[in-house]
Specification:
Elements: H1 8-15, H2 23-35, H3 42-51, H4 58-68, E1 107-109, E2 112-116, E3 119-128, E4 133-140, H5 145-161, H6 170-186
Helix pairs in contact: 2-3, 3-4, 5-6
Length: about 190
């Protein structure tokens, strides 16, 4: 010991066999983890241990789980499609003037995502800003071109059924006729 330059107590400390003081807790952690079908993380396992009467810190549970090389199942992160400004930005024609004096002069649309029975559903309605009436809509499991095309086809059929969809003003007629040409070209 004098040659090594260490104290006598240090030498015997390292010679002594170290006992694992968490043997019972490790076994209980494994049991809880297997019972949860390998899904519980350290927080829920720590709660289960406390329910069973063990006094143990959540950090200790995390350390023991790392030693046992078991990891809880992580939740899927929510899909975020925002990537900043990508592509063309349409000109702001409405300038936040959503009110109108005649029907079918200002039509708006949007695609909205809903979760229904753990499945994503997409709704694409066309709204008349004159009376907030839904003129056409399409429901799909994916927001794609075909959903938009179906919605525009429904709008075209609706406008054909209406006899009085031309407005009184000349500018309104011009806009409506160009919109009809646009609908005809799409479908």
């Amino acid at each position: 010991m004098k040659i090594l330059g260490i104290a006598r107590s240090t030498y015997y400390y390292y010679l002594k066999e170290k006992k694992d003081k968490y043997i019972v807790e490790k076994q209980e952690i494994l049991n809880i983890f297997v019972d949860s079908k390998n899904t519980y993380g350290y927080r829920r396992i720590a709660l289960e241990l406390r329910k069973k009467g063990y006094v143990i810190n959540h950090k200790t549970v995390l350390k023991l789980m790392k030693m046992l090389k078991i990891y809880g199942k992580q939740r899927k992160s929510k899909y975020k499609s925002y990537r900043g400004e990508v592509g063309k930005v349409a000109p702001n024609i409405l300038n936040r003037e959503f009110n109108t004096n005649a029907p079918y002069t200002k039509l708006t649309t949007d695609v909205t995502e809903f979760n229904v029975c753990n499945e994503k559903i997409y709704l694409s309605p066309v709204l008349d800003m004159f009376n907030n009436e839904i003129l056409s809509y399409s429901i799909s499991t994916s927001p794609n071109f075909w959903q938009t095309r179906e919605m525009l086809k429904g709008l075209k059929d609706y406008l054909k059924r209406q006899r009085h969809y031309y407005t009184q003003t000349k500018a309104g007629n011009t806009k409506r006729e160009s919109f009809n040409v646009y609908l005809k070209n799409i479908t």
